[in-house]
Design a protein that fits this description.
four-stranded antiparallel sheet; ATP-binding cassette domain-containing protein; single chain
């Protein structure tokens, strides 16, 4: 890859340093994600998937190595400084949305992510039209409910809203963190299909972690297996076409 959008170089990350609980989670980890690529990461519990996300977002700082986003070394930049570069959708829709605010106010809050401008512009017609346009991509009718409190929405609707909120302000990378884990199967399928649609239509660079093996096979341009702090196997879209859930699960459960 000549100019990857995201590059992790020789990342080492240690938790509980200096205590009896000290443990190395990631060791010599390398990753490149090209612009517009949809990458899926899978792995067993404790494999370090969330730690990879925390390293990209700046929530955790590596002991060694570099984090490079769009050619810029951001290793020493804080999570707040990276907010305009990295947007995240969490697994719990209650975390990604604020229930005591309206849909419009939630979207306005996300729109100013990483910006210094005040709140005063959020309700003008230009912004409102933009928000309606973006949320209409969900085909849920929420564009006609902008003044409704988020607490009135279902879990699936809130997670769908979280997806739109994540793309309302431009960023370099979208992280999807187990976004269907808190939803029932039918709603999970709908939300995942929406996520895929948004990623494709908006040509986003996206990294997703999931426990759902079917989703890991069906979605993304590439699926990689994280085990013991390293990426052990990579499957292209073509290779995934003949892959079964059993095959994929076996990759990270075998010794």
């Amino acid at each position: 890859m000549l100019n990857p959008m995201l590059k992790l170089e020789d990342i080492k990350l240690v938790v509980g340093k200096g205590t009896q609980l000290e443990r190395t989670i990631l060791e010599g980890l390398n990753l490149e994600v090209e612009k517009g690529e949809f990458l899926v990461i899978i792995g067993g519990n404790g494999a370090g998937k969330s730690t990879v996300f925390n390293t990209i977002s700046g929530f955790m700082k590596p002991e060694n190595g570099r984090v490079i986003i769009d050619g810029v070394d951001v290793t020493k930049k804080s999570q707040q400084e990276r907010a305009k570069l990295v947007s995240i959708v969490m697994q719990d829709p209650r975390v990604g949305t604020m229930e005591n605010m309206t849909i419009l106010e939630n979207m306005a809050f996300s729109f100013k992510r990483g910006q210094k401008r005040g709140f005063r512009l959020f309700n003008n017609e230009g912004r409102r039209s933009l928000f309606k346009e973006k949320i209409s991509l969900l085909e849920m009718g929420l564009e006609n409910r902008l003044n409704e409190m988020v607490t009135n929405l279902s879990g699936g609707q809130r997670q769908a809203l979280s997806l739109v909120m994540s793309i309302i302000a431009e960023s370099k990378i979208l992280l999807l963190d187990e976004i269907t884990a808190a939803l029932d199967p039918k709603i999970a399928e709908h939300v995942m299909a929406l996520a895929d649609k948004l990623v494709r239509e908006q040509k986003l660079t996206c990294v997703m972690i999931t426990h759902n093996m079917e989703h890991a096979i069906r979605y993304g341009d590439r699926t990689i297996v994280l085990k013991d702090g390293q990426f052990r196997k990579s499957y292209s879209r073509e290779e995934k076409a003949s892959l079964t859930v059993f095959d994929l699960t076996k990759e990270f459960t075998d010794a």
